[in-house]
Design goal:
2 copies of one chain form a homodimer. Chain A has 9 helices and no strands. Chain A has 187 residues and is mainly α. In chain A, α5 runs antiparallel to α9. Chains A and B meet through α6, α7, α8 and α9 of A and α6, α7, α8 and α9 of B. The structure holds a DNA duplex (30 and 30 nucleotides).
DNA sequence: TACAAAATAAAGACTGACCTGTATTTAATT
DNA sequence: AATTAAATACAGGTCAGTCTTTATTTTGTA
């Protein structure tokens, strides 16, 4: 395995463990045992567990934004692309490793004083809101920029609620009801 | 301090620490140091940290439901009582110890296999949804029971999103936008 | 009310396990 | 020949929970 491949392998293993078990419930020893690499190798690629956590947040959100964008863009015009987000979320929910939103989970786990991680999470969520806003302006050219920002925030809140609450309750109804609420924006 | 008072004192101290610092970031030693009691005393009242966590969840949710009910019931008729929930949340957000929703935080921290804690959290959230539903049926007597259940779930999702996202972003706009969305139900 | 008996609290040592991160030695790869 | 990885021991700390000893408080009974 090449140098860059090892780094990616560590990141993917750590991400799976952080996501499904939680950041504090995942130790470095478990990451190296699961990925089959040595402890010194991990620290050669990531200088601390916190740096690995930052890489985890970037990795998960980048993949999420890439995949949900691909999923939605082949949908029909107008609101269909936005509503497709909730269909994508339903697929996520049905995947066997679904554990809610990694950002909300991590916010709950790390101290308020950790500005690096909190800043990264807010940055990633703002990227998600921007994605929603761009999808809106692409599909509704008459929509003013300020209106798109406000509407994107509302859709974001509905999506986040569906994401977190489907996990908390172990049920799909939050996704369904959030989608219904979102659909009222496109009548 | 009497027996029952000590137990309550331990519970309140542990609840404050669990809520503001997180469950896994709060040790038993910190709870006893902050509350000024002995370790054996804590274990005399709560047989384990997990039992203390269950008591924490019941305590926080009971106080929350009691206080938000008192806050909302003096509001005007109809949707005003429901919208008052978001005003109550804004007050919570502005309190210096605001740390989001204790239930969502705890779900992120404890393993999926911990059925006792997960069941308690779902139970408490269902009590909250029932509170919303009862507020609806009290104020809209023409509302059918099935419709009230669905509407209560939608309002619940908006409230939860506002709760979690105002914490994540450190901003009030999620509460404001969720309230606006909720107000569309009462036009 | 007074006092003895029982229960409970305080203080802190202790166990065994786990944590992050470092250092060392050996093996493999480039 | 030089770099990198594996394996593992180790350091220094924290964790939940148990136990012992001493002090205090509560309670039952006279």
């Amino acid at each position: 395995m090449k140098h860059a491949e090892i780094k990616q392998h560590i990141l993917e293993t750590a991400s799976d463990l952080f996501y499904t078990k939680g950041y504090n419930n995942t130790g470095i020893n478990e990451i190296i045992a699961t990925s089959g690499i040595a402890k010194a190798t991990l620290y050669n690629h990531f200088e601390s567990k916190e740096v690995l956590c930052l890489a985890y947040l970037v990795y998960k959100n980048s993949a999420f934004l890439r995949d949900i964008a691909n999923f939605c863009k082949v949908r029909g015009d107008g609101g269909a692309q936005i509503l497709g987000m909730f269909d994508y979320l339903k697929n996520m929910y049905r995947a066997k490793d679904f554990s809610g939103c990694w950002c909300l989970n991590t916010v709950s786990e790390i101290p308020t004083e950790n500005v690096a991680i909190n800043a990264e999470i807010r940055k990633q969520k703002k990227l998600f809101i921007t994605f929603i806003k761009n999808t809106l302006t692409d599909n509704f050219e008459l929509l003013a920029a300020a209106d798109a920002t406000v509407l994107a925030r509302k859709i974001y809140l509905l999506f986040e609620a569906a994401w977190a609450e489907s996990h908390l309750h172990g049920a799909e109804w939050p996704i369904k009801e959030a989608r219904v609420m979102c659909s009222t924006f496109f009548v």
